[in-house]
Amino acid sequence: MDNYGMDASYGAQAEMKQQTMQTEDPVLIKRKVRNSYGKACFAMILQLLIILAVSIVIASVANAMYTTQLMRETPGLQQAELMQKTQEHAKELAQNSLYLNTLNGVGYLIGNLAAVLISLAALKAFKMKELVSKPRKVQLIGLGIFGILGLQSVSLLIQGLITNITGMTGMNEQISSMMGFSEDMIANVVIFVYFVIVAPVTEELLCRGFVLNALAPVDRRFALIASSVMFGIMHGNFNQMFNGALLGLVLGYLALKSGSVIPAIAAHMLNNFAAVMVGPAITAIAGENADTVTGIWYVLMLVAGLAALIVFVLKNKWIDNDADRMVEYDIAVPEGSKGEYTWKALLTRPTFWIFVVIYVIYAISMVSSVGGAQ
Predict the structure, then answer these.
(1) Is 195 within 8 Å of 179 (Cβ atoms)?
(2) Measuring CA to CA, which residue among 142, 150, 161, 147 is closest to residue 300?
(3) What distance in Å separates the CA atoms of residue 207 and residue 3, rounded to the nearest whole number?
(4) Each residue of 275-285: pLDDT tens digit?
(5) Residue 13: predicted pLDDT
(6) How much is the pLDDT for 169?
(7) What is the mean pLDDT of residues 329-334?
């Protein structure tokens, strides 16, 4: 078939699809919308469930291996003493940053990817290859990616204000220490791989890849805001919920403008790279002046990064509901009734509230664990 024939065939298919959408029963349309939104929320819940399951399996295997080794080395050990030593070993592992980062890295890798693949198969509206397609040309996209560093400075400023006002960090010492480098090179490599590669790639595939697009068949702008709110909630601590939502807005904007999650992955990796590497690098170079140099760095990034981000957004304008998209996934709704098919449809999904409650409870547990320490 020649190119003209192919174009004519594609045009006929597109016209037929549009006619079908316009003649669909409103009840069926609403069911499709709610189904799509429900699966977006379920994907977030499924991710957490799989991560927890993987963590339990790995922890159980580690304890079983330790118990087997202990029984082999001390065959006359009593059952009560064996259980006590096993419990003590489990507590030691819970304080081991190498073990925890490895556990979380594996959990995130399996949990996020499995949630994406299972959800894509369940929704059947778009495919993985559409999410990671070659990005469209976007004006000054490098400024958009660099602008993430300005947003990171805003995030640190907000977190500092929250901590000063409330006296709480929203993150216990054990979790905070997981992000810190040590003299153990293997542990440092694991931290880098987990925070700079695994987390950004898999989170973007889930949040900007599946969730954003599952929320987008009616209105891309609604999907950008809603998925960003969900991304903030997913961070599981009150300090980062607002900052995570801000980050989600920029990452989602990059994804929708470029038609691919790849620029969002690049920006997310840069964000996490700076969060993990800047502090240790400045400490190694500046020594006792590290605090001053760190402050200067973040002020520079605040000014330069936000300026870059503002120029990028002004140049590319707000989201165009027709042109800015990653997948060809549309549901025609009656004129003037988008509200019924956007926020109202999302907020009436039980899976949305299950997702919110789970992460709010987790965030509360994180706050209580620091005991209101000043």
Answers:
(1) yes
(2) 150
(3) 37
(4) 888 888 898 89
(5) 44
(6) 64
(7) 80
Rounded to whole angstroms, the Cα distance separating 199 from 208 reads 13
- CA 326 vs CA 35, 143, 208, 341: distances in Å: 19, 20, 10, 20
Longest dimension (CA), the chain: 83
Do 24 and 333 form a contact (C-beta atoms < 8 A)? no
For the chain, what is the mean pLDDT? Answer: 85
The b/e string for 42-59 (b: 16+ C-beta within 10 A; e otherwise) is: bbbbbbbebbeebbeeee
Q: Are 214 and 34 spatial neighbours (Cβ–Cβ below 8 Å)?
A: no
Residue type (1 letter), 216: A
In this structure, of 20-34, 116-130, 274-288, the range with the lowest mean pLDDT score is 20-34
Please state whether the predicted TM-score (pTM) of the whole model is above 0.70.
yes
Take residue 186 and report the two structure tokens written for it. 């293997």
Other beta carbons within 10 Å of 102: 18
